[in-house]
Amino acid sequence: MASSQDPPQLPLPGQMGIPGGNSDLSEVPERNSNSDTGEDQPQKFTPGPNLATQAVLDGRVQHGLIAGLLKLGIPMDILVKDDWWEENDFADRDVPRGREEPKHPDLPSRRASRSRPPRAFLNRQFSDFDQTPSKANFEESRSTRNGQLVDEEMGYPLRARPTWKELSDQEKMQVLRLPMTQWMNSNFKNHFVASLGEFIGTTLFLFFAFGGTEVANIQSQANDNTSSSDSNTTTGGSTGFDVSVLLYISVIFGMSLMVNVWIFFRISGGLFNPAVTLAMVMVKAITVTRAVCLFVAQMLGSLLASVVVRFLFPEQFNVRTTLSGGTSQVQGVFIEAILTAELVFTIFMMAKEKHRARYLAPVAIGMALFVAEMVGVQFTGGSLNPARSFGPCVVTLTFDPEHWIYWIGPLIGSILAVAFYQFIKTLEYEMANPGADGDPVNDPTINPEKKAEIMSRRRSSSTAR
Asked: For 156, 181, 217, 302, which has the most beta carbons within 10 A of its beta carbon?
């Protein structure tokens, strides 16, 4: 038996099954005989720089022609690749048992079962100008989920990311890394955020509206008399008829509402009005709990805006709403009801209903209040909002006998708007003039899903009867 230190004796071409010999590949020595046991022992394999020569000894050369070419002086690097032990090649090779296998950074054991696919970027072909995988390609082909390699290119599906509600309280604490933060995804937190936005929005809306009203009434008759500043009102009967004053008050109320609704409608809905809040509850746009929270926020916002305007500006605080001398209480109720119904119905059609121009709803809502103020300021002060009339009365400690009008009138207007809105929804107004706003998504004659929604609403209404 040849010693392991002797140089390898390569068989001649004729001895390996090509013309000139009758031997075959089985004559290539692969094992050493043990003199003690008489059994063949696997030859120890140690990867080194001369892997090609070692491959010949291990029986990897499949044709005797290679041995003949070696004797002619052709370099082994050209004939045999020396990177055969990489994971993609050696998966197809039959290695005798017992051999010590080469270590690979991605494959600890050659005999271990492959529990995951090899890195896809190792198999990727690159151009001559870019021989190394870029970071973008590497990150695109490989992603880690909970320490486990996931590769879409090799057919391993990505795990679905759990939602916040699926996490336990302990997992939520680990994600947020803050103590006592379980309430962050609770209904309490959502109501708190909406109430906070409604409080700030109502305060800003009435602050600018009350401030503009004071500016408009600087030279009014109410400021020329000898009465105290807290007893003054903004009604045309008290301030005197002046078109410029009425126009200024109408513009400041409409613009203030438009701007603040546009800011806060994604936080709280931008209602700023208990009458609008009641209407939204009646059409099931918001829950009763949310409505109560918004109502409290609106009352507090009205109080804060009245206090700030009362003590911040040096002019007389003449923003209360009262009836003019010739307006009766019944007339005041219906004036407030009709103006409020117009405002609430505008909110329904522009903000609640889905259409292409929905993002312009704050503009339409502000314009609706502007139009209503142009009519109502002269006769009732143009309240349309119980919170708008309540705050100044509390700050001035003056509640007029007709103060109830500014609660009952807007509430009746909300009921009227809801009744008409539900009536046209029952009659399927979408089918009367389809595509009026050029929105194919909400056109029932084009979008079958929208038509199915209308038909489902029709079946549910008939079942309720």
From this structure: 302
Q: Which domain holds residue 209?
A: 200-426
Q: Which residue in 28, 61, 30, 56 sits closest to 44, CA to CA?
A: 30
Task: State CA 100 to chain mean position distance.
Answer: 55
Residue 286 near residue 242, CB atoms below 8 Å: no
Percentage of the chain beyond pLDDT 90 is 38
Residue 234, pLDDT above cutoff 50: yes
Q: For the chain, what is the domain count?
A: 2
Task: Find tokens 């937190």 and name the residue.
Answer: 189
Tens of pLDDT, residue by residue over 256-276, are: 999 999 999 999 999 999 999
Nearest to 86 by CA among 63, 102, 70, 62: 102
| Tens-place pLDDT, residues 305-360 | 999 999 999 888 889 999 987 889 999 999 999 999 999 999 999 999 888 888 89
Domain at 342, CATH number = 1.20.1080.10
Residue 281 lies in a domain: yes
Cα 72 to Cα 19, 66, 80, 290, 292: the distances in Å are 17, 10, 15, 92, 97
* Backbone angles phi and psi of 83, in degrees to 5: -115, 35
Q: Kindly state whether residues 250 and 356 are assigned to the same domain.
A: yes
CB within 8 A of 298, min separation 6: which ones? 198, 199, 202, 271, 272, 273, 274, 277, 387
DSSP helix, strand, coil percent of the chain (3-state; round to 5): 55, 5, 40
Q: Are strands 40-42 and 143-145 parallel, antiparallel or unpaired?
A: unpaired
Q: What angle do CA 375, 378, 382 make, to 5 degrees?
A: 60
